[in-house]
Write a structure and sequence with these properties.
CATH architecture: 3-Layer(aba) Sandwich
Organism: Nonlabens dokdonensis
Number of domains: 1
Protein name: Methyltransferase
Oligomer: single chain
InterPro entries: SAM-dependent_MTases_sf (IPR029063)
Order of helices and strands: HEHEHEHEHEHE
Shape: globular
CATH class: Alpha Beta
Helix content: 25-40%
Number of strands: 6
CATH superfamily: Vaccinia Virus protein VP39
Distance between the termini: 35 Å
Length: about 180
């Protein structure tokens, strides 16, 4: 186990899940620009390259040209109008993805000051599973987990026991 104080519970859960499925020798393309979690992956011994910040709804050339073993997408697909295009473009046989789950007690995240910082989707597990299957992927392992916050109120209380994130490990369907 990688010993570290993580700023977010989801980082520790995500790293443990990644280590369960992906050997450190595999090269990873992490969709999205370099971020705190891509730094955690590198610190844990993974060879990680990030995409440059291009709009993955319109341009998947960085995905298509990746010559490695794994693509990761941690909290990125909710920002795309169509995650299907990126999923279909992945050239390798493994991917690890996490998305925020739709919460019945909270609206999807929206930042009115930054059009790229919007959640076009907050998923139900079946929705991500469906788009993965349609794009040629098979979910091999999955986990859902909560995201408690240190605030007072009904919604913060509900976050203590309502799953907020869905994390999956997938392999390319052999029938593709």
């Amino acid at each position: 186990m990688y010993e570290k104080n993580f700023p977010h519970k989801r980082f520790q859960i995500t790293l443990e899940f990644l280590e369960k499925h992906i050997p450190k020798s595999d090269r990873i393309l992490d969709l999205g620009v370099a971020n705190p979690f891509s730094r955690i992956m590198k610190d844990a011994g993974y060879d990680v390259k990030n995409t440059s910040g291009i709009d993955l709804d319109d341009d998947v050339h960085e995905i298509e040209s990746f010559d490695g073993e794994v693509v990761t997408a941690f909290e990125i697909f909710e920002h795309l109008v169509s995650p299907y295009t990126s999923l279909k473009a992945i050239p390798c046989g493994k991917c690890v993805i996490s998305v925020p789950l739709k919460l019945w007690f909270a609206s999807a995240y929206r930042n009115k000051n930054d059009i790229r910082d919007q959640h076009y989707h907050e998923f139900e597990p079946w929705q991500l599973d469906y788009v993965l299957e349609k794009a040629g992927w098979k979910v091999v392992d999955r986990v859902k987990f909560t995201n408690p916050v240190k605030k007072l109120g009904i919604r913060p209380l509900l976050r203590n026991f309502t799953d907020r994130y869905y994390l999956v490990y997938c392999e390319r369907n052999s029938s593709k």
